[in-house]
Amino acid sequence: MKDINEKICIIGGGPAGISAAMYLQKKGYQNYTIYEKLNKIGGKSYSPKIKVNGEERTYETGAIMGACTYHAVHEVEEFAGVGHDDGPNMRRIFRDSSGKEIFPFEPKKDFSIGKLLKLMKLKKQMKKLGELMKTKYDGYDCYGHRGVAQGKYSGLSKMMHNPLQHIEGENPNLKDLALPFDQFCKLNGVEEVMRIYIAPYTSFGYGFFDEIPAGYVMKYLDVTTAIEFVALRLWTWKEGTQNIYEQANKKLLHPAHLNTEVVGVERKDGKVYVTVKDEKGQRTEEFDKLIITTPLDGFLKYSDAREDEKELFSKIIHEKYVDFIARFDENKGPEISSYIFDNMVPERLGHAMVYYHRWEDQKSNCPCTVYALRNHTGTKDADYDYTIKTMVEDVEKCGFPIKERLYEQETYYCPHVSCKDYADGWYDKLEAIQGKDNTYYAGEIMSFGDMEDTCASSKDLVERFF
Ligand SMILES: Cc1cc2nc3c(=O)[nH]c(=O)nc-3n(C[C@H](O)[C@H](O)[C@H](O)COP(=O)(O)OP(=O)(O)OC[C@H]3O[C@@H](n4cnc5c(N)ncnc54)[C@H](O)[C@@H]3O)c2cc1C
Fold this sequence. Notes:
The protein is an alpha+beta fold. It is built from 14 helices and 18 strands.
């Protein structure tokens, strides 16, 4: 019997925490509390304002874009009263490691027969992948990874004709999703598609294809989403992605407590005792239930974690994704975003893989966000200072000396598990402890490290357990 009066604590005021509160509220729950350690809502959806030529506008240091497959984000948008039709268009060019512009997908420019044949092969294999995902891998297209290691699926549908409806079934072929993505492609004779997938995957900081289970790649870049990325039919927000969650937070019965860090969790006698630290000091509050939307390996550090939680959460890996906003001298910056393909390989850890030019009308005066990855399984991490220096040099090689760096950060990015742990049923072990000690797990690890997967995971959690 569900009790809508129970007291629920939500840790984290990012997309997962705000959407969890929204879904609880929609179900009639009125007694929830969100704790957010920072002085802002949105977590890694962070859109600071910068003045250029006397005019202040948003720039993105975290999440930038969505697609028509962002069904759960759309539910948050509707609740918040925010639309996605007012953001700047996405445009980009491609460069090699020397900074020279290249045309890998435009046979008319820089023509060669070899390139044309390669492109035709790529197109054929994209079509083949689309067919395979509909047939051989039927059922892959839902959020989360429950059952996949056993050749099953169970979750909210991501499909355009049936979004956010619960689907479940069996398909032994789904076990292939535990393979590293490069092996998955080889097994299915579609290796060329990695050339398309690498830009929205690796350059967005989600790791390299020889280490990441195909389940993550294909659930994030399901065939429809991948096509939307290629066609650049993407959602962006004039006021930034952060604004979606800020506005949603304002519509909540109980907006998040900012500057309030959860520093302790103790579960006893059927209750959850949460210790928080804010400007007034430290205090402990009693709750009936706890929803954690923050890193689960971090939860081990401040909670009374059980052995099963320690065993599972210590296996979580995350990416080390570095970015900063670069400012240039007047009229000296890029006029369009750029992917630097050659830098999307483990041998080039710490190099800039992409820079994002947000406002077309600002031309060469637009500050740009520059991104690089520092880690790869089996390779020594690129040193942080080396990474920053190298990113600056890479942008300079493209012809744009950086005058100033703003909002430089390294994020705890894209938590996931290894192919081995994925195949060993890590997600089913996590599912087995959902609700134990009145504790529920949400956030990026549940499905994938993007806004849509985190919001959809909150919906899935609230629908099933509350
Ligand atoms: C550079 C970059 C680019 C990205 N681009 C995209 C994109 O284009 N599209 C997309 O969909 N996604 C993108 N993402 C990913 C997206 O931003 C995240 O997946 C999403 O924000 C995750 O939401 P979350 O709520 O699970 O976690 P977070 O956003 O990490 O939020 C967690 C919150 O919990 C708080 N917190 C942590 N510990 C505690 C504690 N002990 N007590 C209280 N509060 C705590 C944190 O301060 C934070 O606010 C990008 C991210 C980055 C960094």
